[in-house]
Sequence to fold (228 residues):
Amino acid sequence: GESVGLHLPTLSVQEGDNSIINCAYSNSASDYFIWYKQESGKGPQFIIDIRSNMDKRQGQRVTVLLNKTVKHLSLQIAATQPGDSAVYFCAEKGQYTGANSKLTFGKGITLSVRP
Amino acid sequence: DAMVIQNPRYQVTQFGKPVTLSCSQTLNHNVMYWYQQKSSQAPKLLFHYYDKDFNNEADTPDNFQSRRPNTSFCFLDIRSPGLGDAAMYLCATSRGTAGYGYTFGSGTRLTVV
Fold:
């Protein structure tokens, strides 16, 4: 079946270092990917997205890389800050048509930033 | 600011007592979703509305129902909550089928006693 998964359940980084969070997906027809950040007791917060016609997209301190050959997605956070501590989810959307538009979420990975 | 608002933030209900969670949006998005998220797990889609068209996920229990009286509001009704229904319930919206602007509310934490 189709799945979106994260390689590691937790990631601990030193404040100021760069963080890389990886995600694998299995649906080769996926055409849209999103990274979300979820802090405790809050809803997922959009970080950055990328479409399948791109392999890299940059935001403020974040970069998403997409490798369609190996169906791999990564989120890079530059100069990680304590406020980046949260659970991160990748999500993918397949090529649904008509009235269907939904995301499939991978398992979350907890990012812990050490002071 | 345009947003997705969920009320209440915390809801306690008795086992078997019907409960309704609400979601409103000022984004004028035509698609609204309800997700269930249990501790340390990814959000799981229960159902969504595309305009007035209701789309139920195959594995969503009959105990869960939804209503969308207008573009701005969507409700999640749990007819007979069980202990296993305790979770965070997330509402989300998006513009159309491409999924652009997918936005989540802050969620309602449901406790069943």
